Amino acid sequence: MSKTETQKVSIDERSKDQDLARNRSDGTGQFLTTDQGIRVEHTDDSLRAGTRGPTLLEDFHFREKMMRFDHERIPERVVHARGAAAHGYFQVYESQAKYTKAAFLQDPSQKTPVFVRFSTVAGSRGSADTARDVRGFAVKFYTQEGNFDLVGNNIPVFFIQDGIKFPDVIHAVKPEPHHEMPQAASAHDSFWDFVSLVPETAHMVMWVMSDRALPRSYRMMEGFGVHTFRFVNDKGVSRFVKFHWKPLLGVHSLVWDESQKLGGKDPDYHRRDLWEAIEQGDFPEYELGVQIIEEADAAKLGIELLDATKLVPEELVPVQRIGKLTLNRNPTNYFAETEQVAYCTANIVPGIDFTDDPLMQARLFSYLDTQLTRLGGPNFTEIPINRPIAPVHNHQQDGFHRQTINTGRANYHPNSLGGGCPMMASTRQGGFAHFPEKVAGEKTRVRSQSFADHFSQAAMFFRSMSPPEQQHIIEALRFELGKVEIPEIRKRVIEEILAKIDGTLAAQVALGVGVPAPKAVASPKSVIDASPALSIESMPKTSIKTRRIAALVADGVDAAALQELQAEMKRQGAQVKVIAKHLGTVTAAGGQAVPVDKSANTTASIEYDAVFVPGGAVSVETLKRDGDARHFILEAYRHYKAIGASKEGVGLLKACGLDTGAPGIVADPGGAGTVATAFVDAIKKHRHWDRKDTESIPA
Ligand code: HDE
């Protein structure tokens, strides 16, 4: 076997699709059959003794159909149960040979197929997408050297430092055991009880109370590998690496009131958004970023790299963008692909390796273990979505539902009967060899002193936020602790956690939840005072691509104004949805029929990034009398969204009591056409936090 034998598997963007095609089944033009391939001549009545008699046991078609239905469910994931996924590919910008020998990071012309699943953590499979929660961001790379799974989140740190505490934190956040409430929510006693007693949660708690826990879209959130990994090059040199995903559409969030309402009006909000974007050809893109840290420099950083409650600020170690992930194909079948996919942190390829982070070490056990139950035994690696494109040959055998038919007699190693095959690969031939890290020490359950600081980065995170983002954190904590029934827990969170992060934060939250303000203590210092890269508000907001704009219309609308808006939004890559009382068409002032996309009773302002009211005297008079239309405008205002109006449309904003000079309102009473550009700029800002009066809005 030559050195490059493993690389002979040539991979391109379509490789996994072609592999999955082997298992696809299309019933078009086919006869309905039983599982045994027997054609069925009647499936709507069971076989019975007489037309009014009992069903006969010999009805094999009925029994098979019912048996299969009875066994359709498998256990949902114990965490990250609710998710949505897509296929795509990854392409490196230039060879990373200097850092890693991983084959998929060498050749810029190669597209490596991927399957990416996004998820919430706490809710069950049928819960709502927009809960306040961490989002999973799991990527399976089907590389020529086997599968590499980067199983990350949209938050760069975690609640705990040691995986042995994972069952505790998850039990605490999941619905309480006696009555199984609340669903997909951390706002309850057991979660905050845990937080109040476990100070290492402080940093992550700040993140989940921030806007990061309310992404506008899976397409508009960052991803993080969280742990420190290793890159190992072909000389055997190891460097520490932290992985990042940077969305090309920028990072954007919802507001809390909007998230809660979406949970009822469209629980599939993120799933739908991902699906529709891909169907429309707006392929989500993320750049893969790496922070590389020389082993020799690790100690100088002043940050414990093995502590997953810590991040390395980008200002200290810049993120180098080394390649791009593109999601361009929706799954064919939710269960077969999104539900059955099994990510595992232990799936790595030569050139990438683990560190001793105790959280990561625990994960190396947990994923495979949980999948044995969830997917019914060890042969789940043969399920089409999980099987690698790289060839698989070994002595594993048997077990439930074995697919592979191994040939020959030699199912052991070493053997002579099979000519010694399958054989070992040297590292030169692509064999995986663990990085020979030196380890020594006494067996102990003692945690290193270097893990003892729990508050400095929590404080840095809070200091890095813009004033509106800080306010959102305060309001989130007031909501969450406001739902906590036992006063001692509220008090303990404020005194033992928040007061140690920031005195003003603690006092503000205390005020909201009826707890006396704690004694002010100095906010702890961190390696750098603030990391601007952590603030969503400080990130560039350069485009409105793929944004959804609602246009409110009725009979008599000014069709030219509407068309002008539609044309401009199309130029910008955004889309306009025309909303009226009823589906069908409205008749414009000039008599033309204007198609309606959504009827008012099936949609709401929370599903859009901005709203526009075109002119047309009769249309606007109708909207003024329509409570749904007024609510639409007021709710969008309350959620800080851009609102545009031209000609008579401005009258609707006034009728809603809005100041047309308020931030983010673009009113063009003369209809000179300037509204389009100014409106685009207003949408680009995403939210207009400088509105002062939103709390007075009854929406
Ligand atoms: Fe997971 N996690 N996790 N996790 N995790 C699972 O594996 C676990 C952690 C993450 O879309 C489970 O197959 C332990 C951090 C994602 O299918 C389970 C610990 C991060 C997904 C499990 C952690 C994650 C999971 C449940 C602490 C971000 C969904 C079902 C030591 C870096 C993947 C499954 C998908 C799923 C265990 C902590 C991300 C139980 C023990 C930190 C994105 O094995």
Q: Which CATH architecture of the largest domain?
A: Beta Barrel
**Average pLDDT rating:** 96
Q: CATH homologous superfamily of the largest domain, by name? A: Catalase core domain
Structural class: alpha/beta
Query: What is the CATH C level class of the largest domain, in words?
Result: Mainly Beta
- DSSP, total strands: 18
Describe the largest sheet: 10 strands, antiparallel
Assign the CATH topology of the largest domain. Answer: Catalase HpII,  Chain A, domain 1
Q: Provide the β-strand percentage band.
A: 15-25%
Radius of gyration: 28 Å
Percent helix among the residues? 25-40%
How many helices? The count is 18
Indicate the low-confidence ranges by residue numbers: none
Overall number of structural domains: 3
List the bound ligands: CIS-heme D hydroxychlorin gamma-spirolactone 17R, 18S
- How far the N terminus sits from the C terminus, by CA atoms, comes to 70 Å
What form results from the Cα inertia axes?
Answer: globular
